[in-house]
Amino acid sequence: MKKQIKQRDKRTGRVYVYETDMEYDPASKKTLLRNRRLIGHVDDATGEVVANRPTRASLDSGRSTRLFVGATWLLDQAVDQLGLREDLEKALPGMAEAFLSLAYYLVCEDRSPMRRFHRWGATHAHPFGAPITSQQASALLTAGDETVQRNAVSAAVPAAQ
Questions:
Q1: What confidence score (pLDDT) does residue 17 get?
Q2: In the chain, where are the structural domains located?
Q3: Which of 30, 91, 94, 100 has its CB 3.0 to 4.6 Å from that of 152, i.e. a possible disulfide?
């Protein structure tokens, strides 16, 4: 049974309000205190209960994440200066960002297997911005059919002339 109990602090004279959870024990024929939680104090002017501490935000109020951006930022700068992003978009339409993310992973994690990309991608900022499964990574890396090769060559030839 939950109950609100008011208790006066003798040193300060402030009245605090606690929520207590009590239970009757028939064996010992006593009421036992199971839990006690401070709710706040009683305001002297209004007589209302005022919370002492701010309450925590609910879990659905948004989600914060931490991403590492140092090495990927440097790679972004290099890719933009070289114009590689535009060339990849011409050669691999719709897949350039995912391909760049895989390339960033291979540069940053030199000897790590591709199956660990999902963990790296969750903690690092990368161009694709979404998780890539190992099956998707395999499909991207083996997407070297003739049309992709033809697009890559046609994108590189005008740049060389």
A1: 93
A2: 2-52, 70-156
A3: 91
